[in-house]
Write a structure and sequence with these properties.
Strand content: 15-25%
Shape: globular
CATH class of the largest domain: Alpha Beta
Largest sheet: 6 strands, mixed
Helix content: 25-40%
Radius of gyration: 23 Å
Low-confidence stretches: 39-43
Number of domains: 2
CATH topology of the largest domain: Trna Endonuclease, Chain: A, domain 1
Number of helices: 9
Mean pLDDT: 80
Amino acid sequence: MGRVKFDENDNSVFVILEQENDDVNMRDLSSGVISIMEPENLLKWNNVQPFIYQNKKGIRIESFLSENKLAGSQGEKVFADFLNNNNIPFLYVGQNFWDITFSNVYKENDKIIMRPDFLVNILDLGNVFFDVKCRRKISLADKNGRRNNYFYIKKDELYGLLHLREKLLIPVWLAFIDREALEKVNNYRDKGIKESRVGFYVVSIAMVEKMFKEIGEDVENKIYYYRIPKELLTYVNSKEKFFESFVCELQFDIHSAAYELKTNYDFCFVEIKKKGASFGKKKNMSRDLISKIQSETGLLKEEIEYVLGEIEKERKKR
């Protein structure tokens, strides 16, 4: 069967064609140990390179992942390294090349299920799914123009993980890795400078779900990205902190965090409604006006368009 090896250092993938019952060691495979193959009439792309390795033919594909996907892959490796370094048992259940995800039993027309990244065994607690997100924080303004930065999860992602929990009856947690912090460490590493490992922030989707229920359906319906207040997150940089996080959640003040977030969302939605009142359809709003709303609220372009769409739905119902 064929073998596939992804090299995260240069964002490339090696594909080797093997014969039946024939094995090849890909552990040390890199561009430095392969011989380039140049057969006649070979159709070439800028990011595809044929090679021979241990007498096996294959191709090396550069720029295999998008920038965001590459960051996600690096974030998953940070999380896996943390678990391994602290002898915490886990299974990686991330994306595979063959698009095998869920049994058809779990597929419903009206409900999506999101695939998590890890199944982690927690001492005295049991198995917990973790979905790892390596992201830059996004902001949200209050009525005084002050900005707070948040980790976030898209509405469809959260619903998909909630449905996963519902179907498999296993708790689901999120682990956020600050992309800017990860890039800083990577830059130090590339320069040969030792830097401390990247930590991560964790929260259960049960806590996120509970907080947005506190916010209320009227506001929640207009939210495209669920921002997660820092008060709900536990920063993990040690084994002790990791296990403590499952207890820390019980002490969080959801009401205060939900009230502040709701107030800020309300302010932003009112601004969008005022400025977009003369536009019946979101596509008619000018780019300059969307940029103005972005600068005043901190919302992203796709969020503004989503809110305008929801406002239009409400208008048609009247």
